[in-house]
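ok trying again, last paste got cut off:
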Amino acid sequence: MVADKLITKQSIVSLISVFFIHLSLFLVSQFLPSSSLLTLLPVSVGVMLIVVGLGGVCKKIVGVRASAPAFVVVNIFYVWFVYLVVIRPGVSYKLDIAFNSELAVLLLGLCRILSSDPGYVAYGSSNPDKLVADPLLDVKTQLQESELSSSEMYKGCTSDEEKGQESTLLQRVRFCNMCKVYVKGFDHHCPAFGNCIGRKNRVLFVTLLVGFILSEASFIACLSQFTKYYIADEDVKKTSFYYTLANSTMLFSLLQVLWQVVFLIWHLYCVCFNITTDEWINWKRYPEFQLVVQLQLGFDCSGNPATRTKFINPYDHGILQNLKDFLKAKE
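nice, full thing came through this time. structure:
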């Protein structure tokens, strides 16, 4: 399963994409050796957007798309390779152990989430085709509650405790347009991990996101030690191939940390208020998030009192309880 997602023609396209992205960052560091990070970061973003845009055009012409999971894995190994070949000699023993351990755990977690069950739901309906007829319609409006309660889970039978919570959980079964499946607690489809993020693997997803940030922050700390240990002479600093390679990889890591921190903050917000990304974006499509309020003044075209729809979150039970429910979610 994991190998099928990584070893394909799309993976070769991902490998080429990684090469050109890091080559562009290397050239930025090469031609702007004395520039500050405040200058290099926006320039790097602009160059990467150009490279990604050109890559997208080329992929459309060739007719082959890249594999996002393979892109992530190749980037991890590239950073690891630069660390081992260039940076490691100037890094302390403790930081070396910490960084290598973080990357090893990160790869294991990545392999796990690629094949994890986000909470797939298989219904025992006599007419399963009607489940796909309107993917944005709430599942509970399509099937009777008796059918829902007898639904077969993707992985075996549920426990007694889980059966007691089933009536509540089934209200949050959503459809993934990418995978064409229904998922309990569906948050979003993550291209980087090649899988849906739902109730059963959301904890793993957030943990992996934290792991990426920590490992990239550790890599930046390793680069700091490398710079202090090896780069004392300004002339060497400007001409060293190793320094340019290390600097370009640091730019990549910084850019990754910046967007991942924002992404993590968003998901922590969702966890604290017990809402998913899909629900927050598409709340007008889910009746339980809608509260119709009648306005005191004004009438519509039919002469009826005017109303407006407000957002409510029926699943928000306070931050502490929401955190408990999140951590109790089983993979």
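cool. Residues 2 and 112 are 8 Å apart (CA to CA). The chain has 14 helices and eight strands.
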